[in-house]
Amino acid sequence: xxxxxxxxxxxxxxxxxxxxxxxxxxxxxxxxxxxxxxxxxxxxxxxxxxxxxxxxxxxxxxxxxxxxxxxxxxxxxxxxxxxxxxxxxxxxxxxxxxxxxxxxxxxxxxxxxxxxxxxxxxxxxxxxxxxxxxxxxxxxxxxxxxxxxxx
Length: 151
What we know:
- The model has no long low-confidence stretch (mean pLDDT about 85).
- The protein has one domain: minor pseudopilin epsh fold (3-Layer(bab) Sandwich).
- It is an alpha+beta fold and about 150 residues long.
- The protein has one helix and nine strands, in the order H-E-E-E-E-E-E-E-E-E.
- It is rod-shaped.
- Helix content is about 35%, strand content about 30%.
């Protein structure tokens, strides 16, 4: 009679494969969530930059007694205030407006006046069909109100 002794001091190939598959699945879930988080942070940062630019335009208009404009170029995918450095609109985002003036072909703007008022308008920041942020520039006060649409 031949007796076989099994050594129980190691792992079988099946056990190792199962562990590797579990690590792979968990890793891919974490990677996807981190990617979404980075996109969400970039969107939030861009929204804050847009509001900051609008407030800067209003502040310039009031402090210097001039008409200052917040511009959005749909073709170049940039926004800026007067002759200052533009910021890029992230490629996954879309900026749309309602009541915003088209100043030139493909260039839209909201004007801020020395008395603090503005030309007014609403801006919508979206990804696909989902509106992520809404900005309202008040006609009389020139104040900018922003609202994040959470789902």
